[in-house]
Amino acid sequence: MNEKIEKALNDQVNAEIYSAYLYLSMSAYFQSIGLTGFAKWMEIQAAEEFSHAKRFYDYIFHKGGKLKLRAIDGPPVEWKSTEQVFTDVLKHEEKVTSLIHTIVDLALSEKDHATNNMLQWFVAEQVEEEATATDIINKLKLIGNDGNGLFMLDKEFGVRLLNPLVFQGLTG
Ligand code: FEO
Question: pTM for this one?
Answer without folding.
Answer: 0.92
